[in-house]
TrEMBL record, chains A, B:
InterPro entries: HTH_LacI, LacI/GalR-like_sensor, Lambda_DNA-bd_dom_sf, Peripla_BP_I. This is LacI family transcriptional regulator. PANTHER family: HTH-TYPE TRANSCRIPTIONAL REGULATOR GALS, LACI-RELATED TRANSCRIPTIONAL REPRESSOR. Keywords: DNA-binding, Transcription, Transcription regulation. SMART domains: HTH_LACI. Residues 13-67 form the HTH lacI-type domain. CDD domains: HTH_LacI, PBP1_LacI_sugar_binding-like. It comes from the Bacteria.
DNA sequence: CTGAAAGCGCTTACAG
DNA sequence: CTGAAAGCGCTTACAG
């Protein structure tokens, strides 16, 4: 009676041990393991009991060798890492994906490809079939890794619409434009009329779309666009500070700012307050993301919530579907205005 | 002449293809792959050329099946995840470990074990040999996972000294006590005498040691310990706020605080400033970590730098050594006082 | 529904 | 230094 004792790293039981315990062939054990089709209830039961008794756990390497699948997926970050690691959104996304995958018993391999060398190494690793698919975090256009993976036929789903790759690659994104519209409409409803904007990088969909939403709503509201009220950042806190300084210098009586990320909004807030202006009395500040950064400020940030939990869950769902043979798909998720004290 | 064309997911070349190309046996190819011992220079060369021509990449599953190693390691987080994901330190550590492992071409599997269920699942996964070793992030005492892994003989290295596991498990840690001493000495040198402290959780080494350093330096300086100046937090920002409120209520003329993490120090800073006190004029605030949180505040935080890059590099080094058969080891790394505007 | 058998791609003694 | 061969633990047609 083999017990699955711990202690030491003994040879773990194999399918062969289970078969012997259960009094069936190894083929039958394997069938039970793989869904239980074409197995009699009695055999099924005997095998399950034997598995329990022996403490059997499938050897994934042996399985992978024959199925050709690795039963793992990569989480690939091709951004310069410093920035992304500074951003709390990244954490939420990584955690959500890890958990969603855990549900399917699929491990997540973390891959960082910040440099050219790393990109080459990782592309090679992935195309060699060491993962079944890739969750891609890289919003900038012209990402060579994304293109290479797509060409190699690796199942792929991006977080945010990958500019330049057309709709041949799956992606999951929040409705950036709509979120921006909500925020700017909110600022207008507060009576603000000289509304600035600090955009994201303009080679990212978040950068482009959120700015588009801003322009649309102002235009619809009959307000002339003042280009001095538009500056760009790179989603970093410090770029928010720089942006706010520029805005205040160009339009000292600006009465509100829509900032395309909470982290940048932190920087904007600091600069606005340092200039002696009160938030929200003199200048209302609206962020984007509803990341932990939004509640770390004083006053806390009014912002647009990105549904990160759903985004990560959908990314995993779409990726697994694609690994299972389905065609690519794009998923757009709604955002939500979260009112706090900064507006 | 086979080119390693991309496109589609064709059957990749095997060791057999390489052997044919090179005109040698598969055994010889394998020997070249595994260090090139007992291989003539000419065979060596022929094989390398064939590998290049065919675009051969080893099939890790086949290799693992026979070696019994997975050539991968797990990064295991057993904390309730919310907190850790809020903490920028976590990112730095995760990134550092991933990069250090990439150097060795070893993938990192991210494992989150926040709930009892997840802990069970992951322990099973690990002890089944799916990873060769584990980088453990879990500072609380009495962690059942750590104990189980140790018993199962899984190579393990913790970040921070694991309370209760004795020295049978490897760990890498910053010199917490010494860092705390530096900070409190610095505050004393500024002329502050009513110095409060917000500690970390007292069932963690960071909680215990940093408090010990605080007590030591004050005692050495001939200052009587005032227990009303000592409160505990859990490393979260909000616990820093709560701690500061308690301290200010108990000792309104407190003139400095040593806070055991930058994130908590953010909360302390907010509360102190909200109370109308100036930082650093009225109350000097010192943090711990030198995480990105330290420069996100206004004024920026004086803090104790934890050498995260070295910590992660050492964790990986010690783990790989242990996987290679070496005995456990503890590594203590020095910290550094970083002076900014908050003191 | 079930067993016997082939084979996935590699490594490693074993002879030479 | 090198080749032939066994075998790692599994899955999957193939016969029954």
């Amino acid at each position: 009676m083999t017990m699955h004792s711990t202690g030491g790293r003994r040879k773990p039981p194999t399918i062969h041990d289970v078969a012997r315990e259960a009094g069936v062939s190894r083929g039958t054990v394997s069938r039970v393991l793989n869904g239980g089709h074409y197995v009699s209830p009695s055999a099924q039961e005997a095998v399950n009991a034997a598995i329990r008794r022996t403490g059997y756990v499938v050897n994934r390497h042996a399985r992978s060798l024959i199925t050709g699948r690795s039963d793992s997926v990569g989480f690939l970050l091709t951004e310069p890492q410093e920035r992304f690691f500074e951003d709390p959104n990244f954490n939420v996304l990584l955690r959500g994906c890890t958990q969603a995958l855990a549900t399917h018993d699929i491990p997540l391999l973390l891959m960082l490809a910040g440099t050219e060398d790393e990109r080459r190494r990782i592309t090679r690793y992935i195309t060699a079939g060491h993962v079944d698919g890739v969750l891609l975090v890289s919003s900038h256009s012209g990402d060579p890794v994304a293109e290479q993976l797509r060409e190699a036929g690796v199942p792929l789903v991006a977080c945010g619409k990958p500019i330049g790759l057309g709709s041949k690659v799956s992606y999951v994104a929040a409705d950036d434009r709509d979120g921006a519209r909500d925020m700017v409409r909110h600022l207008l409803s507060l009576g603000r009329r000289r509304i600035g904007v600090v955009t994201g990088p303009l080679d990212t969909p978040g950068g482009v779309e959120r700015l588009a939403g801003y322009r649309e709503v102002l235009t619809e509201g009959g307000i002339e666009i003042d280009e001095r009220l538009i500056v760009s950042g790179d989603y970093s806190r410090s770029s928010g500070e720089a942006g706010a300084e520029r805005l205040l210098a160009q339009v000292p009586d600006m009465d509100a700012v829509f900032v395309a990320s909470d982290l940048m909004a932190q920087g904007v807030l600091a600069v606005v307050q340092r200039s002696g202006r009160r938030v929200p009395e003199d200048v209302a500040v609206g962020g984007f993301d509803d990341s932990p950064a939004a509640t770390a400020t004083s006053p806390e940030l009014t912002t647009i919530r990105q549904p990160w939990d759903r985004i990560s869950a959908e990314m995993v769902r779409v990726l697994l579907a694609q690994i299972g043979g389905e065609d690519p798909a794009a998923v757009i998720l709604p955002t939500e205005l979260v009112k706090r004290r900064s507006t």
